[in-house]
Design goal:
Order of helices and strands of chain B: HHHHHHHHHHHHH
Helix content of chain B: over 70%
Largest interface: A-B, 35 and 28 residues
Strand content of chain B: under 5%
Oligomer: heterodimer
Number of domains of chain B: 1
Order of helices and strands of chain A: EEEHEHEHHHEHEHEEHEHEEHEH
Mean pLDDT of chain B: 89
Helix content of chain A: 25-40%
Number of strands of chain A: 13
Number of helices of chain B: 13
Number of helices of chain A: 11
Largest sheet of chain B: none
Radius of gyration of chain A: 22 Å
Shape of chain A: elongated
Structural class of chain B: mainly alpha
Number of strands of chain B: 0
Strand order of the largest sheet of chain A: 5-6-7-3-8-9
Low-confidence stretches of chain A: none
Chain lengths: 298, 274
């Protein structure tokens, strides 16, 4: 397996006619973890990813993989596996032939075709024409194409789209295991909740500009955690003295400015027993939406 | 290395979908029918004309090349369609995305496509000749005409038919890159080859100066390359139909193909794939 290489986007700008798709965008994606690339529809995610793999020419700035532009890679499919949102198949061709063509084009051993079909759970349907595939099966075939060269870097645009709940669980596990092997995994989505459980870091953009880059935990610091204790007053005092703000609600306290882990530690230090410690994940989605709304406003 | 892999991949693209053999079947059927019809019609007509003193004579020796060359003079639209559809389907089905991901050097992809389609066009030429000679020769023989199968000229003509068909497929690829819209390219190919060019060629034969321009029309150039055609062989316009030498005809076809490919590669092929 080739090494996981960092993806570096530097001051990237791209306009289509009068429409600015990406504007002065910079971020870094590190190997060995899953990075979510988030933003509402039309925020420039797909343009950024297509620029990264050389399908779209940037107006200015650079997008590199391990320091090299995609078109300069010695063996592109061995280095970067890409699955883009648009279905890119000839409906009259079988999945096996589809994969074999690009394996041949990039000198990948033909045995990889069966291997990746197996890996995405399509081996049974490999000899069927793609025109008869469901959206979920096309999504899996796109993923099979990305995995074809056993690459160290994976760039996946909306891979969860069209998958059933079982498929979503499967892809989450797959992304985690690919990252655990040391690969670089960049996954785009327009829904935070879709990738929340499987990403280590997120890059959030809106209107082609960077809004946030970092861990979910840090992002979550802006969200609220619902806590409760038999001794509510003591808990509120301990949290307030730690510099966070506390609101009283019907069934306990709502804390802003601290993560659940930090609150737990504070309670332990103050010897206050907890009977509830519940990060409001809906709150995280709210933070995302607020952030995006702010970004859209500028 | 990249080019070799791209050539192999483009070959697989062509043979893994149904288009090539559907077009091939129609081509063979169409040419067999036309060649058979011409051979039967003029084979019988020749006898009648010969029996009528003072009427225009169709020398029996000009019949075999007219019948055999239907392979390209009638069949050339098929390699054009193959080349054009193979190219436009990449745009239509967005297979340019995986193609350029696997081979970021886009020029290599286009070069491979031109090469592979040239070979496929030559194959179409061979198949069309099998149809035109296979059906035409026995009918010519049956109507008491020479078949010219023992003549070196006949086989040189066959070789030039194969070359013309290869060039037509290359023109198809160039056209597909130039006009990536599949429906538009089908309309253009059919309207031009079946309607516009025949009229232009007919009209060009009226005056000498137009005839000199008309000989550069792609269909006329193709017939010049092959050296015989049902159009030139039977034309009886007031002006003599001008015709290029065979190698000039070949160069005109090659020039058209390369021009279309070069313009296309600098425009639609270079464009952002979104």
């Amino acid at each position: 397996m080739p090494a996981g290489l960092p993806i570096e986007i530097r001051s990237l700008s791209k306009s289509f006619g009068a429409v600015t798709a990406v504007s002065q965008l910079s971020f870094t994606v590190r190997p060995g973890q899953v990075t979510g690339f988030l933003g509402p529809n039309g925020s420039g995610k797909t343009t950024t990813l297509r620029t990264l793999v050389g399908l779209v020419r940037a107006d200015s700035g650079t997008a590199t993989i391990g320091g090299a532009a995609y078109r300069d890679l010695e063996r592109p499919l061995h280095t970067v596996g890409t699955s883009l949102e648009a279905a890119s198949f000839h409906p009259g061709r079988t999945a096996r032939d589809h994969l074999a063509i690009y394996a041949v084009a990039s000198a990948i051993d033909r045995s990889r075709v069966s291997a990746v079909l197996d890996q995405v759970g399509l081996s049974e349907y490999g000899d069927r024409r793609v025109g008869g595939y469901s959206l979920g099966m096309r999504q899996r075939l796109g993923l099979a194409f990305a995995l074809l060269g056993d690459p160290g870097v994976l760039v996946l645009d909306e891979p969860v789209n069209g998958l059933d709940p079982e498929g979503i669980r499967w892809i989450r596990g797959l992304l985690r295991s690919l990252a655990a092997e040391g690969r670089t995994v960049l996954v785009s989505s327009h829904l935070l909740s879709e990738v929340q459980q499987s990403v280590d870091e997120v890059v959030i953009i809106a209107r082609g500009r960077l809004l946030y880059e970092g861990t979910l935990d840090t992002l979550e610091a802006g969200t609220r955690v619902a806590v409760d204790s038999p001794d509510r007053t003591a808990l509120a005092a301990a949290i307030t003295s730690a510099g966070a703000s506390v609101q009283t609600s019907d069934d306990g306290l709502l804390v802003s400015g601290l993560t659940a882990t930090e609150i737990g530690a504070i309670a332990l230090d103050a010897s206050v027993p907890l009977c509830r410690l519940d990060p409001q994940h809906d709150g995280l989605e709210d933070v995302f939406l607020d952030l995006v709304a702010g970004g859209e406003g500028t | 290395m990249t080019l070799m892999n791209a050539v192999r991949a483009e070959t697989m693209k062509l043979v893994t979908v149904r288009l090539w053999w559907i077009l091939l079947l129609v081509l063979v059927g169409y040419i067999a029918f036309t060649a058979g019809l011409l051979a039967g019609l003029f084979g019988a007509l020749g006898e009648q004309l010969a029996a009528t003193p003072g009427s225009a004579q169709l020398p029996a020796s000009s019949l075999p090349p007219i019948v055999y060359s239907t392979a390209s003079s009638i069949g050339y639209v098929f390699p054009v369609l193959l080349g054009a559809l193979a190219t436009t389907s990449e745009f239509r089905n967005q297979t340019l995305t995986p193609t350029f991901l696997a081979t970021p050097r886009r020029g290599a992809v286009l070069a491979a496509k031109l090469l592979v389609l040239a070979v496929a066009g030559a194959g179409y030429g061979v198949a069309a000749l099998v149809a035109s000679i296979g059906v035409g020769a026995p009918i010519l023989a049956a109507t008491g005409n020479p078949t010219a199968l023992d003549s070196q000229e006949t086989w040189l003509l066959a070789a030039r038919v194969v070359l013309a068909m290869a060039l037509w497929a290359v023109i198809g690829v160039g056209l597909g890159v130039l006009v990536p819209n599949q429906v538009a390219v089908i309309v253009i190919v059919l309207a031009f080859t079946q309607f516009v060019e025949p009229i232009l060629r007919f009209g060009a034969a009226i005056w000498d100066w137009t005839a000199r321009i008309g000989q550069f029309l792609p269909g006329a150039a193709s017939d010049a390359l092959v050296g015989s055609s049902v159009f030139t062989g039977l034309a009886t316009g007031p002006a003599v139909v001008e015709s290029l030498d065979w190698w000039q005809g070949g160069l005109v076809l090659f020039g058209i193909a390369i021009l279309a490919a070069v313009i296309g590669s600098a425009t639609s092929w270079k464009r952002d794939v979104t």
